[in-house]
Each structure stands twice: as C-alpha cells, then as structure tokens.
Amino acid sequence: MQGRDIILFDLDGTLTDSKEGIFNSIRYALKFFDIEETDDEKLSLFLGPPLVQAFMKYYQMSEKNAELALVKYRENFVKKGIYQLSMYDGIDQMLKTLKENRMTVCLATSKPLKFAEQIVKRIGIAPYFDYLAGATMDETRNEKADIIDYVITQNGFHKDRILMVGDRENDVKGAHQNHVEVLGVLYGYGSRLELETAGCIHFAKTVAETKSFILQ
Could you cite one Gene Ontology molecular function of this protein (predicted)? Predict the structure, then answer.
C-alpha cells in the first residue's frame, strides 16, 4: 500500500501455523480441570484472543480458575507446544524482500514476548525484524490494540505509515482502535466473514498476495 512502509505482523496464523501446539496446550490446561475437549472447532476460538478471557468465555471459568488455566497452558507450551508449529511457505522470502525494499518490519503478537522471541529465532526469521512486541507474562498488556499502541509509542512511528497484517478480528479491531490500516490474510485461522464483520476491507488469500499488497 502506497506510503505505508512500517509493517506490523501478527504471529500465529499469519507467519506461523501453530495450531497443534496451542491446541495441545489448551487440552493440557483443560484436563487439569477434568475437562476433555475433542472439538477442534471450539479450540479454534482460542486462536487470537487473550487466553484468560477465552477460558472465561468459552468454559465459563472464574477469573481465578482462568488464570490457573493459563499457568497450566504455559506449563505445557514451554515444554512442548512451542516446538509444534511450522512457518507458512514463502514467509521467509517475503520478509527478506520487504527488508530489501527498506521497509520497517515489526512483530505485534498477543503471544507473550518471551515465547515469540524464541519462536522467530528458532524458525530463522528473527534477523528480518526491526522490533518485536508481544504480551507481558503478567497479562497487563495482552490486547492487540495495546500491543499495537506499544509498538507505535516505543518507536515514535507515524500512524499513516503503518500497515497491520493479521488473520483474526482482534488484529483488525486493534488496528482500527489505533487508527492504522490493516490487511486481513485468509490463509490463517480467521474467515473472511469474521474479518469483514470486524471492519476489514483489504484481503490477501496467500502469502504471495500479502507480499504484493504490501509492496504495491
């Protein structure tokens, strides 16, 4: 998009397919409460929003139990889940191209920064990022709008130069709350309907289309 040379990327469902590790960690947490979940569709509701809120909303947990569920989730994720993911085809080449075109590339994920840093290093794309931002471990910063705002304020970015790239409604809403443009990718975990309902008007069906849109 013309004039937008600061690109903020979501992580799960945008750069990586991390469903397996997330689902396994959610099941691990639920099992602690004697809940056996076999429905992947229900677990897919956890792909995007803050986990404490998701446990409260989708399993009617109290805030105290939801916070304990998060602890159990992380217990499994740090041991196993963090390794159960793959990078979408073409992501590394896209990021390389953006840097060759002198764009500023940042990560803006609701995943705790501690985990996000490990993931981008392990899959080999850390060198392409100018700045990494994620949620705090104590959940004081976990909403996408707050994370995007954090990236902007920490770097002094002009909002009219920013494009947020993500796959879920929280990416769209978070971008709009910060008055920045957003591109919804349709190869991730959110549907076109979900993104449109959230107010998204720009879409990319593939990683190649994502790269083309950014460079246009």
Answer: protein tyrosine kinase activity
pLDDT at 3 over 80: no
Residue 131 lies in a domain: yes
pLDDT tens for 139-172 read 889 899 999 999 999 999 999 999 999 999 999 9
- The beta strands (E) that lie in the chain are given as 6-9, 16-17, 86-87, 104-112, 131-135, 162-166, 181-185, 203-204
Q: Cα separation of 175 and 153, whole Å? A: 14
| Residue 98: domain span | 6-17+86-215
42-96 confidence digits (pLDDT tens):
999 999 888 999 999 999 999 999 999 999 999 999 999 999 999 999 999 999 9
Strand partners, 106: 8, 131
Q: Tell me, yes or no, if the pTM score tops 0.90.
A: yes
Region class of 181: left (phi > 0), else alpha (psi between -120 and 50), else beta: beta
Same domain, 63 and 98: no
Q: Same structural domain for residues 39 and 133?
A: no
Length of the chain: 216
Q: Which residues are catalytic?
A: 10
Domain-embedded: residue 1: no
